[in-house]
């Protein structure tokens, strides 16, 4: 389990992702290059944005019994409640089954194990959001930040103990492509368009800008329990745009 400060980078979908995939027994892929073509197609997703990994619904069952679709959704809803209540380590599939009014077999027909169940819970409740395109990098970055904030408010899927569950290596690996990578690409496209419009220099460092904005959300919400107001996001965004961080060239070193 990473230390809270390490989560600042993880939630933005850039640093420390290799260690999470390696711990989960998967081969890490290189993160997207900051200077890639803005029209690059996203990798194929195994799970649609914001949908659970559940089988296709079947015809309605006899009166009094939920349909497969209804039961699938109930499992994910009560699972989120139990995840907030107990956390990942103490979460038991049998407890989810009891709360959902089904047997463990019904859950295992839908999800291979606890990690897959929690990944499905996350993807069913998270707001990935559309990539903002208002014509202003300032407004786009604000909306991008607010999308992230909504997931961390109240009993959101990225709040409290649910956030800790997201950072478990076996869960993180399952949601990387459908959540973190997509969110990161959205942020990079916002900055790519800003460069095209002349709002930012061509050698701007997108990682520093996106890490700063997403890191503010995570630090305030997940660690301090304080809500970030839109005006506070804008103050940070304005400072970053007024003096945008630049990419370091190899000749400059990293002293």
Automatic annotation (TrEMBL):
Q: Where is the composition biased (Low complexity)?
A: 50-65
Concerning Gene3D superfamilies, the annotation shows: Homeodomain-like, Tetracycline Repressor, domain 2
Residue range(s) of DNA binding per entry: 92-111
Output the superkingdom of the source species. Bacteria
**What sections of the sequence does the record tag as coiled-coil?**
none
Gene Ontology molecular function terms on file: DNA-binding transcription factor activity; transcription cis-regulatory region binding
Compositional bias ranges of the Basic and acidic residues kind? 34-43
Annotated segments matching region Disordered: 17-68
Which residues belong to any copy of the HTH tetR-type domain?
69-129
Per UniProt, the keywords (alphabetical) are: DNA-binding, Transcription, Transcription regulation
Xref: Pfam families? TetR_C_11, TetR_N
**DNA-binding listed as a keyword:** yes
Specify the protein name: Transcriptional regulator, TetR family
